[in-house]
Amino acid sequence: MPIDNDYPKYDYVKYPFTIEAARYVSGLGLEIQDLADEILNRAENRIEEAIANVKVSQGSQDNKVEILSFPTAIMLLSIVGDERLIRRYALAESKRAYELLKKDPPANIIDIAKNTFGWKIGQGKKIEESYYECTLHFTNYLRNATSIHEPEWKLANRILSGGYVYLTKDETSRLLLEEIQRKILDRCRKTTLEAPSALAPRIEKIKRMIEARKGYMGIEVPRVAVYAAMPPCVRNLYDSLFAGRNLSHMGRFTLTSFLVNVGVGEEDIVKTFKAATDFDEKKTRYQVEHIAGRRGGKRKYTPPRCETLKTHGVCVNPDDLCKQIKHPLSYYRRKVGSLFKRGKKPETG
Amino acid sequence: MALSLREGRNLKPVEDFVKERFSEYYRKDSRNVEPPPSIEKREFGFILFKERMMVRHKSFRTSQELARFLENTVPSDAYHSTAYYSKPEEAMESKGWLGADLCFDIDADHIPTPCKAIHDRWTCKDCGATDVGSPPDICPKCQKERIDEETWLCEQCLDKAKTEAMKLVDMLEGDFGLSKNDMNAFFSGHRGYHLHVRADEVRQLNDTERKEIVDYVLGLGLNPDLHRLREGTSKSMNFQVGDISDLGWRSRLARGLFEIMSNSNERELADLGLKKRVIKDILGTREQVSKEQFATTIRNTFYTIGSKTWKKIAERSSAKIDTVVTTDIHRLIRLSGTLNGRTGLKVVNASVADLERFDPFKEAVALVGEDTVYIKEAPQFRLGEEVFGPFQKEKRTLPRAAAILLVCKGKAVPVIS
To answer: Whole-model pTM?
Structure first.
């Protein structure tokens, strides 16, 4: 495929993860030592913004710099090898792509899905009053939709016909987000050779960035909640959150209300969520304040009872103590009690 | 355990008797054994008569090798993996999973049928409480969980299972776009059917993705609101009887509703949770108006139907599969053409295209000859064209398949001359 080196397509700037963009980059035949400072700066900048806000904004005006900074950032990340940072970066880049894809015509979305990810995807049609711009083979749908836990993403709640799921442009972009995220994760996790010495200062700088933002990136458990005293269901939610998985509405509510009730401050909860996932800060803050009783009905919510958690599939690996209690908070109180029986009481909670 | 012969009795002569018949079958008819495609990538497992335990992690390069093994070992039951492995004989963690067929299990045990009260019975191993019908999870008398079941294969139960299998095939073909050419249906030789989908496109599905397919087939987590069946606006009015055929669950629910409304009496409609006024409307117009007009009446009721009613309709329209077989990507499943140790009947390929006409009581008969048995008690049953029983404390010489069925089900003991 002929590539015009001097005038790369603007689309490559928007979608640097595509196969066409990768071909353009390899067509340039650059070596690591050829990378201009401009490119390295922009790569660093991509990573920095991902750490701070889980975001990647439009950067350089130079298309070539912009495109090359993406694989460069991935190379830097794979050298640093920090799993949390990699997850955060993959999320930031895929969110950016999602926002851009939503605004593109369906034909572009279909092209990217087909060429870069090998999806079996086609043009949709109007059914009843709704437009479904795309139809996607159920296997591609399942691979990406099973990590989203909202009821509207359950296959049973979709129009599925002849092997294809009917989707709007927005929904297709949302599924692409998952696929893009996975692709970036895979690329970042590939071990690279020893870092060239010229890059050493850059690597050091990124490591320092991680160090400075440690609290932000959810490396520490909120101080006041005693992790070891959490019931298995809450521990599972907590771990899932930090493994970068999406929580169901019920799961999110359970975790938040649990933390609120064991005395974790609202600010810390917002940070916890923000650190691990793609939650919109404003929305998260609103939800936390609502559950804490500072908004709406001024009622402080408690987590659901064990029975309700069972129905919603939040209850996992119940242990012996679980058999004696009916509410996750009773579990916590008892466990804290037994953990600190002989020692000092924890400061809070 | 393979045989339903009770533990704690002297089983040796009974076991030898059955094994001898199985041995004859594998000596003469091992060509009936139909190994799955890519035999060299499959794990095989067998239950042995004597040890009564599963021998796993076996592998064979050719069907001849497999046939020879069956002939020499004579297992009571034989299985193969639904998965493909690069090293099928290794321990689970080093097998190298390459993919798996998409398999479904439809078991009469999981489908409620009225005849179970006639031919099934359970007994609590702890307190001895006993009753007819499907077994409870815990004994209602002593609250313990050790329950012994006695089941029977009956035409009505297996017919119901077949209907569910046909519903499943319909869903896989219509909704999932899978070809009947890639589907194989097998009668398990006991109480159900297995459906294997052997297509490239499903091989790489992981367990979570397979669970989602299970939920779809069962209609679990289905929300009628999300199918716009409760809006009561012009949108739902757009449904036409003719063009609801290809929209997956949305049309299945609408069709289910039409069916119920067209055929149910007043009480059945009330049982669905419909309001009196709606029932009156339906019964009032049903006989008098044309089909199209009646369809409009029903469409007008969409918004009055609550989620409980939709759930019931979904349940009637779903295919009742057993969930574990489909989601387990390392599962062993019965090998076609081998004998089922619970019955002496053979696992047999039931053509998907002609499933409706498949007669398990004829096709699964494998053993030839005659045997004399003492029958304690057995309900009436049919094998091939012949009807047997009911029996009560009698000695009989029966065609071998019938005699072995009774022995395997613990209803009779061999009379060894």
So the answer is: 0.80
